[in-house]
Amino acid sequence: MMVSTLIALSSLFALAFASPVARRMKVLESRALPAAGFVRTGPAAANTTLDLRIALVQSNTDTLIEALYNVSTPGHPSYGQHLSKEEVEQLVAPSTESITAVNAWLQQAGVNATTMTPAGDWLSISVPVSKANSLFDADFAVYTHSETGQQAVRTMEYSVPHALQGHVDFVHPTVSFPNPSSAKSFVTAPRPLGRSANLTARDTPCTPLSVTPNCVQTLYNIPSTKATQSSNQLGVSGFLNEFVNEIDLNTFLGKFRPDLGDTGFAVASLDGGSDSEQEGQAGLEASLDIQYTVGVASGVPVTFISVGEKNQDGLSGFLDIVNFLLNEPNPPQVLSTSYGNNEPLMPLSLVKNLCNAYAQLGARGTSILFASGDGGVSGEGQQNCTSFVPTFPSGCPFLTSVGATALTSPSTETGAPFSSGGFSGIFAVPSYQASVVQSYVSGLPSDIQSEFTSGMRGYPDVAAIGTNVEIILNGKNLTVLGTSCSTPIFASVVALINDELAAAGMSPLGFLNPFLYANPGAFNDITTGSNPGCGTNGFPAASGWDPVTGLGTPNYPALRAAAGL
User: Fold this and answer.
1) Is the distance from CB of 358 to CB of 368 less than 8 angstroms?
2) One-character DSSP codes across 51-64
3) Which pLDDT tens digit goes with each residue over 480-500?
4) SS3 of residue 128 by DSSP
5) For the chain, which end, N or C, has fewer CB atoms within 10 Å of the first or last residue's CB respectively?
6) Bridge partner list, 238
7) 87 noted as active-site residue
8) Residues 6+ apart with CB under 8 A from 535
9) Where is the signal peptide (predicted)?
């Protein structure tokens, strides 16, 4: 019966799209001008091949988000009962009607589509410009960035048949332009360490000028005993051709964690990613992330997920990596990412789709952590801003954003001045943080309140030490700073608690934020510091949550107890 129904639907849509009436088109997206810096330099050649992605309307996103909160909120009857891969896919899969309608339209036009995601919500097509112009009633042209010379074939407007309203969400890349700066690593200022590289961890106490794994363990009471559960995995995102050198890792562990013995990491790749082991090819970000996950999450299996340059998702591979993990039968229970950009530069339709993808992964039991950024309230590299610039993707409410602190003494932290924080311009404040955000904002002077949109998602959620962190890079002992340091450290705390939960037969923490905001006493509250930018002093740290250090830095025993251990 189902097969005959599908055939009937397909035939019906094919007949509809063959009729003149069906060619009535509806504008799906448009823009008045190209993105800043891009100018039209001529029509695109008719035979130029365009690789386009069609996002179908997902069926039950509200139900998915409700399920995410149910399995992530302490005290709810479903807490910890994470959804299976199949359950998530069934929730977000487009309706049969949508799949049939879109495929009938494409087939009628002689276009072959490939399903890109396990839920079937993304299709890919390759068509010449002439076909794309006809199919989408568009005018694809060549646009060139005046500073970088980067070229992109885009249109200022595109349409789909009226009959596909409610079935096609958007098509990419069409009206969204590439960001010339792409994703950025949130780590800066590598500098040589003055003392001898022969010193051991015992010779490097926790000081404002030297942060090591031993220092991190002391600050946050993190155990050094090795994890025991091989099923508990920690994933580390790698972008921009950043690689890890295993010789550097071994040197780092030999110096700071000799008790771990022979400890390495696995590698997964997508979009042509790899992990070069050639001498001198180690990347700063990748080295930091792996050394402080392997070196702090003692014995937790770590996988470096290398995203190559063959990504065309419009988000530097951010969407590709989450879809890659959604296709895995057992994705890592923690994903640490130390890259991002400025939210206003990101295509709105893609950002919302990506955020919903994070909700899918969170519903399956993965804790997603992102660095908040290193530009204070000015975003990344925009010191001449006229209003505060939120960073991406920290504004998404379905991930945990990590800010940074600095040491003022071996045991006292303050908010790091570079720690990005503020409020999204896209996503409304989620229920789990509504009261603390309102409490904080109500105490701000009016001139600061005018710099951001009220009622929006605040970030970061938490923080960790992020200054003068020691690493080994291409054989040299360096110190670095950034929220890139803080994120793998906090991710390691979550991974170690997950290890204990798995050993006790309990579920991993999964999407963290409802749990974190329900347990503010599990953090070291940071009440000093600020994050200046845009010609202002930025936000001040304060008691409770603030947009510099979030809820504060982790107190491992308290978090462990809050998790029921």
Assistant:
1) yes
2) EEEEEEPPS-HHHH
3) 999 999 999 999 999 999 999
4) strand
5) N
6) 306
7) no
8) none
9) 1-18
Catalytic annotation present for 461 = no
The three-state secondary structure class of 230 is: coil
Strands (E), 61-155: 114-115, 122-128, 141-145, 151-154
Pairing state between β 122-128 and 114-115: antiparallel
Whether residue 409 lies in the annotated active site: no
Compute the C-alpha angle 38/41/47, nearest 5°. 115
- Of 372, 378, 420, 484, the active-site residue reads 484
Backbone torsions φ then ψ of 71, nearest 5 degrees: -80, -10
**For tokens 């008719």, what's the residue?**
46
Q: Was 374 annotated as part of a binding site? A: no
- By the 8 A CB rule, do 372 and 394 touch? yes
Q: Is the peptide bond before 460 cis (omega within 30 degrees of 0)?
A: yes
Distance, first Cα to last Cα, the chain? 51
- Tell whether 544 is in a known binding site: yes
Q: State the Cα–Cα distance between residues 467 and 485, nearest whole angstrom.
A: 8
Contact 142, 41 (CB under 8 A): yes
If we measure between CA atoms, which residue out of 521, 528, 519 comes closest to residue 546?
Answer: 528
DSSP code for 121: -
pLDDT, one tens digit per residue, over 56-99 is 999 999 999 999 999 999 999 999 999 999 999 999 999 999 99
Euclidean distance between CA atoms 481 and 467, whole angstroms: 4
Q: What is the DSSP string of 146-191?
A: TTT--EEEE-SEEEEEGGGTTTEEEEESSSPPP-TT-SEE--EEEE
Q: Is 526 known to sit in a ligand binding site?
A: yes
**CA 388 – CA 538 distance, rounded (Å):** 8
* Residue 522 in this model has a pLDDT that exceeds 90: yes
483, 338 contact by CB (below 8 A): yes
User: What is the radius of gyration, based on Cα positions, of the chain?
Assistant: 24
User: Taking a C-beta distance cutoff of 8 angstroms, is the pair 405, 526 a contact?
Assistant: yes
How far apart (Å, rounded) are the C-alpha atoms in residues 336 and 339? 10
Could you tell me if 266 and 304 are in contact, meaning their C-beta atoms sit under 8 angstroms apart?
yes
Place 23 in a pLDDT band, splitting at 50, 70 and 90. low
C-alpha 34: how far from its chain's center? 26
Tell me: is residue 497 an annotated ligand-binding position: no
- The β-bridge relationship of strands 400-409 and 367-371 is parallel
Q: Which of 29, 242, 248, 285 does the annotation list as catalytic? A: 285
CA–CA gap between residue 247 and residue 282 (Å, rounded): 10
Nearest of 178, 108, 182 to residue 145 by alpha carbon: 178
Segment (H or E) for 427: strand 422-428
